[in-house]
Amino acid sequence: MITANRKLKVILAQPRGFCAGVERAISIVEEAIRIYGPPVFVRHEIVHNKRVVDELKNKGAIFVDEVSDIPDGGVTIFSAHGISEKVENQARLRSLPVIDATCPLVSKVHKEGQHHATKNRDVILIGHASHPEVEGTMGRIKGGVHLVTNIEDVKNLQVRDENKVAYVTQTTLSVDDTREIIAELKEKFPNIIGPDVRDICYATQNRQAAVRNIAGE
């Protein structure tokens, strides 16, 4: 139990807080409310943070699970996690005014996967099943995607041509989360193509490292 007279030392991790992609998505929703007036409709939570979501609700954002939940003419915002082509087409067919808040790094993963698919490579996605970003990425790459979540998935993976394989990763996974899986992929497919290290989002990694660094203080 903490007594009233006990002094506590508070250590603030650096860096901390939201990444640039999340800050951008929040600003997009707030600006849409300012320009168009409430309500605006956001497919899925704009970010995984209850406080932020509740604040946006109070300002006039309505969060929905599917495009079909949005009334005709409703200003529609896609979350930072990205969407599949199917969802995008649903909004287009209804002529909904759309604002895309997809994180630019997520969009870059989409483009990389699409590029590999046009080269007839098997595309492997390292990520978590049912995560909104993974669903969006898999729905953006034609020809299908192999989803792997652990080393066992890699061991059981079958591709058309072991010399024509590429991988992309869910951006919200840290380097630590993917290191062993990537190593296993490279061992199984020596010629596999992966993203340039400069393309990796280090926000998650940096924040996890910051917590580890202060854990012993």
Automatic annotation (TrEMBL):
Among Pfam families, the record links this protein to: LYTB
Concerning InterPro entries, the annotation shows: LytB/IspH (IPR003451)
Q: Does the keyword Disulfide bond apply?
A: no
Which Gene Ontology terms cover its molecular function?
4 iron, 4 sulfur cluster binding; 4-hydroxy-3-methylbut-2-enyl diphosphate reductase activity; metal ion binding
Keywords recorded for this protein, A-Z: 4Fe-4S, Iron, Iron-sulfur, Metal-binding
UniProt key word Hydrolase: no
Cofactor(s) this protein requires:
[4Fe-4S] cluster
GO BP terms: namely: dimethylallyl diphosphate biosynthetic process; isopentenyl diphosphate biosynthetic process, methylerythritol 4-phosphate pathway
Q: What is this protein called?
A: 4-hydroxy-3-methylbut-2-enyl diphosphate reductase
Lineage summary: unclassified sequences, metagenomes, ecological metagenomes
